[in-house]
Design brief:
463 residues, 20 helices, 3-stranded parallel sheet, single chain, uronate isomerase, domain 2, chain A, 9 strands, globular, 50% helix
Length: 463
Amino acid sequence: MLIHEDRLFPADPGTRRIARALYAHVAKLPLISPHGHTQASWFAKNEPFPDPATLFVQPDHYVFRMLYSQGVSMDDLGIGQAVIEDPRKVWRIFAQHYYLFRGTPTRMWLDYSFQELFGFKERLSEKTADHYFDSISEKLTKAEYLPRALYDSFHLEVLTTTDPPNDRLENHKAIRASGWKARILPTFRPDSVVDPEFAGFAENIAKLGEMHGEDSGNWKGYLNALRKARARFKELGCTATDHGHPTAQTADLTEAEAAKLYSAVLAGKADAAQQEVFRAQMLTEMARMSLEDGFVMQIHPGSFRNHNQYVYERYGRDMGADIPRPTNYVDALHPLLNKFGNEKGLTIILFMLDESTLSRELAPLAGHYPCLRLGPPWWFHDSPEGMMRFRELTTETAGFYNTVGFNDDTRAFLSIPARHDVARRIDCGFLARLVAEHRLDEDEAFEVAHELAYGLVKKAYRL
């Protein structure tokens, strides 16, 4: 077996028995994936995934960033290629270096997929590479491995994509028109038209105006175009926005100040400080719009995006070179919270890459403001240890009910059930410890386990 049935449960036998019972209570609940980066086109076209390398290696920056860190060329991995020229070669390189993932959550996710979806019992290695490749390739041709069939077999109830405002959402429309009843929903990600440092920023804003019949060359027209874009997303079931800003900074400018700043930013005349103020103001504007249309806001700050200039220039964005950095929430969010923090109709989900803020800033903020919720451990902290630290550092102040369950935030479709399984096991282990220490009654632990696995995410994302 590649994965043990008691993986991630407490080592103490008595506590482990409680964790097993809690996990059995939630293991088969439907999966809610309210934030991720899978492609709507997979489900619109419902075509077979082409090969194991394209499925497991090429879309997963957790995989190829580790290989790159050990000197494996991204060219040799087919990164940046529309179609991998030699997928078997890529797979062999991956298998040869599989030992690099020992002790990482990536290894746990992959082993789960290899065993549970494809039936492998022997570990991936240079020796087993071709057997894996041939077996997976054969199964990918079968009807039960098509994207829609996998969606159903994963027991997914909702799966969201992440989409820029200028996306016409044709694939989402095609899914709906097909009559398939699955809930594949878009998420509104406006970074390309609110971040002056985003490549093609001015052109993106011009296109935004053209698409929505507004003059985006002025502040009022720009905001109107954003509102119309959000309405278009809402028609296709969108319930949330997502904001990947460098910081959590917000602002509360007057309309005249905002219009003047917008003109400078659009003309390319704003310096770095002014660009940061503009992004800050746009978080506040997005909160205002969320009060109007009911969208949930997700703020994902704290990443130095595309840190490796060479990789960015050669392969593009989101190629595994994003690095966490310290993030301030208390001062940064104060302007927005002064304006909207007491609005019960607003939900803002905060994520972190700076764990030092969990007990000092984020848990106290979410434990007070009605609009704030804490997102689950994200990205570099989407790990067993990260999840446990999150519960330990936030529960005492924010409780369980100011958190929002789990989201997988993945481009790797087949890792979704594995990631949710890890989260459910860790949460059940944490609850089991509270029961064993007589800090929580067992009947309450069962209720909380259900909420963490299923209930809180549906409520928070208005699903």
